[in-house]
Amino acid sequence: MFPPPANPSPNTSYIRSVRRGKHKIFIGMSPGVGKTYKMLEEGHRLKEEGTDVVIGLLETHNRQETAQKAVGLEIVPRKDITCAGVTLTEMDTDAVIARQPQLALIDELAHTNVPGSEREKRYQDVEKVLEAGIDVYSTVNIQHLESLNDLVARITGVMVRERIPDRLLEEADQVVVVDVTPETLEERLRDGKIYAPEKVDQSLQNFFQRRNLIALRELALREVADNVEEGALEALSNHSNSSAPYCNIHERVLVCVSTYPNSLQLIRRGARIAGYMRAPLHGLFVDDPDRFLTKEESLHVETCERLLKEFNGQFIRVSDQNKARAIAEIAQQYHVTQIVIGESQRSRWKILLRGSLTQQLLKLLKHIDVHIIATDKIT
């Protein structure tokens, strides 16, 4: 957990520093991966270390292992809300805030509250608790992210109605993936640890199909990787003088385009590499400011740009007399991990006198793989 103030007893009032609470989200690919169990497990550990922990809201879904894991943690009683003559319960946000724990465990971030509640969504209740200076641990499944709603529907055939804004993950202080293999999840389902036995076969034939689980798992892992990388970028921008190297989490491919016809071959090869790695594709052409392109060369560069865009790539054009330096600067700016370049078209004497572009790049680049593609020599 985040460093807490000195631990008070539950009945002792104390002055809390005026700060927003910190938010840790446990995210998984689907129900049953163990998000709630992991949250409760950490709650117990922190309680043993002296942190004042309460359960603000827990949904066990009749899972015995989850219910058993909650034993020993204080639970803030729920609030009764009557809707259409039926009395239901929701988290008592005001009671959680009045209790003033150091940490509140709040399950199912994407839950929609009963009509008549003060706030429509549980994540809004969580934000209220955070504003009161209380740290929160919460849980959510990847399919509840707003931006992934259409994609999840295409993958699973299920339109998820309860959604949370993506900003919650971006604003969270920590996001933890609770990950299991699809095989383990299927085994838990068959053992009755996720749903009642009568729902198992239907679940396996629908949402819990193996291909769905594989895709959802990849989405969850990728989302958190994106989140981590964005955090690293922000940290770098906030410490511009830092000499610490930036660590790329995702692969990014840069194809070096020239006026030689082999550039089209390089773009196709770069697109294949990007496809294998599921990586963004960029193409770079460096203009020599001291040299005008012929009409034929200009048309060739335009052809390269069109081809790159057909592969959903981004075409970059810069002007610099020093091509190696320009490539290295763009590679750093775009956090490139793979560079695709053709073998030198210069004569052996020119290479001996001035060195090849590839040799210059290898001296300038660190932690970037360079693919030198053999192509037909231009005569």
Order of helices and strands: EHEHEEEHEHEHHEHHHEHEHEHEHHE
Query: What summary fits the major beta sheet?
Result: 6 strands, parallel
Which residues sit in consecutive blocks of at least 5 with pLDDT less than 50?
A: 8-16, 349-354
CATH class group of the largest domain: Alpha Beta
CATH architectural type of the largest domain: 3-Layer(aba) Sandwich
Strand order of the largest sheet: 3-2-6-7-1-8
Q: What is the terminal-to-terminal distance?
A: 66 Å
Provide the structure class. Answer: alpha/beta
Spell out the CATH superfamily of the largest domain.
P-loop containing nucleotide triphosphate hydrolases
Helix content bin: 40-55%
The CATH topology of the largest domain is what? Answer: Rossmann fold
Count of spatially separate domains: 2
Mean pLDDT: 83
If you compute it from the alpha carbons, what radius of gyration comes out, rounded to the nearest whole angstrom?
27 Å
Domain UspA: 251-365
Protein name: Histidine kinase
Keywords: Kinase, Transferase, Two-component regulatory system
GO molecular function, one term: phosphorelay sensor kinase activity
Can you give a write-up of this model?
The chain has a six-stranded parallel beta sheet with strand order 3-2-6-7-1-8, with helices on both faces. A five-stranded parallel beta sheet has the order 11-10-9-12-13, sandwiched between helices. Strands 4-5 form a two-stranded antiparallel ribbon. With 379 residues, the protein is of the alpha/beta class. Helices cover 41% and strands 17% of the residues. The protein folds into two domains: 23-238, 3-Layer(aba) Sandwich (Rossmann fold); 253-373, Rossmann fold. Residues 19-228 form the Signal transduction histidine kinase osmosensitive K+ channel sensor N-terminal domain. It comes from Neosynechococcus sphagnicola sy1. Keywords: Kinase, Transferase, Two-component regulatory system. Pfam families: KdpD, Usp.
